[in-house]
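REQUEST
  id: r-88c1
  op: predict_structure
  target: HTH tetR-type domain-containing protein
  payload:
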Amino acid sequence: MLFEQGYHQMSMDEIASRVGIAKGTLYLHFQRKEDLVAELFAHSLSMFQDIIEKAQTRPGTAKERLVSVLEFMQLCFSDKSIHIVYALDNAEIACILRERFSLPVARIKEGVAALLEDGKRSGEFATALPTSVMVQAFFSLLSPVVYSRLLREDPQLTAEDLSEHLRHIYFQGIAKENREGQS
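RESPONSE
  id: r-88c1
  status: 200
  body:
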């Protein structure tokens, strides 16, 4: 419902009805819809933190480890099971959650930054590009709004193809051989 209707149009009555429970039961667990959204976000945030931590410790190049993060997140778009991406891409929800989850979100960004720094040290990624810009560009690849729109606008484009195209554009853009020496 959150994805279909948006935060403000979603109601606790509709949620209870769709889930098949009494409204009172829903209110036993979540006093307000903000609490429900925060719980969805917390769960997704925890999953995303685990993915980043595993990527940091697994063998492989920095690019391979970042690709594993992207692949997992993009797979989750099909069933919208990762609510963090939607929440971060939705201004009305991001505003509600920003204060409460600023530290965990910062840790996730730091994890991605660490992977990018590994790539810079190993010579995979351009050292001239600011890591902060690379991190922001990485997260922009995970925008479900843009992702869904692109798939709707080009019905011949598959989700797998789109993911591959986005990865190609991103990693070509930050590759050392493509960026070093350019102003």
